Amino acid sequence: MEKKKIKANILILLTVFFWGISATNTKIVLAEVPPATLAFLRFALAAGLLWVINRKVNPSVRLANKDRKRMMFCGGAGISVYFILETYGISLISAANATILLASIPIFTMLGERVFLKRRIKKTETLGAIVTLAGVGLVIGNSFNISGGYREMIGSMLLIGAALSWVVFSLANKTLENKYSILFNATYQSIFGSLFLLPVALMEYRSWGPISMISWGNILYLTLFCSALCTFMYLSALKELGATVTNVYINLMPFVGVLAAYIVLKETLYPLQILGGIIIVIGISLANLRPGWRQSGYKNKNLLTQKS
User: Fold this and answer.
1) Terminal CA-CA length for the chain
2) Nearest to 166 by CA among 228, 108, 118, 231
3) I want to staple 249 with a disulfide (CB 3.0 to 4.6 A). Which of 12, 30, 115, 303 is the partner?
4) pTM: predicted TM-score of the whole model, two decimal places
5) Closest C-alpha to 227, from 44, 74, 35
6) Are 306 and 229 within 8 A, CB to CB?
7) What stretches of the chain show up as alpha helix (H) in DSSP?
């Protein structure tokens, strides 16, 4: 058992690292590839890879006709809309700022469950939500005081929009979670998401140009590690450690993202942004204090900070 625990801790640390630096990788590629085109390339490649793996793992499982529309909707919300907003947002905002804002996704998901699923929110979760939203306000509000003001502000709003689209996906995906495996859902949602991304990517054709090996390397990193491997590493750790422990690890992502942006991109964070990031992490930690999360990690798999 100890070996399993050690392995699970290593897997979640690797997940935090790979997801944490993904905004920096995205920023590098965006210097050559327009946002929607990057999102399409990433998930078209991921969809092809997942299709091959899914056919080997689930050869006899088929998508029921009655679930097709919901699967398409989830692919649109969780892949197409999310990554268009996220990638365009990162093109306007610093990678460090983007990582901080996306760390608030679990709180928005919790609030969405309260509004639409009528889930009871405990006092620690309410306090955590208030603290987190205050941190988000600091990060966004400081955009008015830095170079590029409104550009940063628009980028921040797009990132918040991405977080909200992930909430919609999480809620809509609950029915499918009970019917199909994670691999099966990821495969079909990536396929549908890629198809919806294609028309938007084609609209950027005037901005297309040669893609360097460095950018291709980062695209493959985002595809293989962030879109495929990390999901399975996260869920493996979640099964062994439970949601409380894994979400504590996930709270480290903003610091990994900020450090990567500082080292690789030479980005500078301002005092209020740093304070906002710390407050967001504190808020998420407070929300994670509820005992129920210790019982079953899979019940909370929709809280994946993902899709980074």
Assistant:
1) 31
2) 108
3) 12
4) 0.80
5) 44
6) no
7) 2-20, 22-29, 35-57, 65-75, 82-92, 95-102, 105-117, 123-141, 149-172, 174-177, 182-202, 213-221, 230-241, 243-250, 253-264, 271-287
Q: Which of 53-67, 110-124, 144-158, 174-188 has the highest mean pLDDT?
A: 53-67
Contact 130, 185 (CB under 8 A): no
User: What does the block give as tokens for 50?
Assistant: 């997942």
Contact 229, 18 (CB under 8 A): yes
Amino acid identity of residue 157, one-letter, is M
In the block, which residue shows the tokens 């893609």?
211
Q: Give the tokens for residue 66.
A: 């009655």
**Number of other residues whose CB lies within 10 A of the CB of residue 126:** 15
CA dist., res. 175 & res. 181, Å (int): 12
Contact call for residues 152 and 146 (beta carbons, < 8 A)? yes
List the structure tokens of 27. Answer: 């920023």
Instruction: Return the structure tokens found at 243.
Output: 């949601």
Sign of the four-CA dihedral 85, 91, 93, 97: positive
Tens of pLDDT, residue by residue over 88-120, are 999 998 888 888 788 777 778 777 877 877 778
Q: Using the structure block, give the residue that is written with the tokens 């407070």.
A: 286
Give the type of residue at 220. L
